[in-house]
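User: Please fill in residues for this 166-position structure.
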């Protein structure tokens, strides 16, 4: 693929991915405001944006076998842990942006767990089997990720009812 087309597809993938997430966030807000039909509209169009992003990603030949996809996930999470979030957090600290410091710290803590979980999954897949995985719990306040439901979130202090089970 030629460089300009590749760059355009990557930009389109990023834009569609962000629109997908933005519309899901907007849908949650519309639900909280008692506007279920607006929420449904946001979710429907979010799904269309996901389809567009998936098509761009597929065209870029970025979907590989599961082991390679896990390695890509490990690399992404590791980058966030070792480079991205430490720098973002440091800048927020220097600029005394307390909410940004907290948001970056919570994400950093969760990404460390994600990298470990993906690493375990890759080891299993490379050994020719699926990963042994129980329930996964995600705190809907800060993103804390665990396989054991705590009484309260160790990162943000949210009650265990704030966790979503996967």
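Assistant: Residues filled in for all 166 positions:
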């Amino acid at each position: 693929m030629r460089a300009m087309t590749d760059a355009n597809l990557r930009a389109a993938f990023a834009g569609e991915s962000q629109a997908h997430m933005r519309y899901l966030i907007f849908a949650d807000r519309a639900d909280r405001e008692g506007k279920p039909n607006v929420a449904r509209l946001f979710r429907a169009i979010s799904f269309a944006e996901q389809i567009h992003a998936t098509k761009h990603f597929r065209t870029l030949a970025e979907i590989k076998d599961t082991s390679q996809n896990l390695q890509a996930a490990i690399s992404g999470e590791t980058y966030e842990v070792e480079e991205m979030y430490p720098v973002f957090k440091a800048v927020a600290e220097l600029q005394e942006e307390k909410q940004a410091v907290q948001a970056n710290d919570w994400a950093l803590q969760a990404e460390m767990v994600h990298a470990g979980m993906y690493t375990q999954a890759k080891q299993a897949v490379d050994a020719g089997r699926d990963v042994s995985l129980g329930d996964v719990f995600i705190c809907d306040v800060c993103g804390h990720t665990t396989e054991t439901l705590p009484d309260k979130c160790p990162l943000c202090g949210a009650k265990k009812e704030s966790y979503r089970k996967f």
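For context: The longest helix spans residues 3-32.
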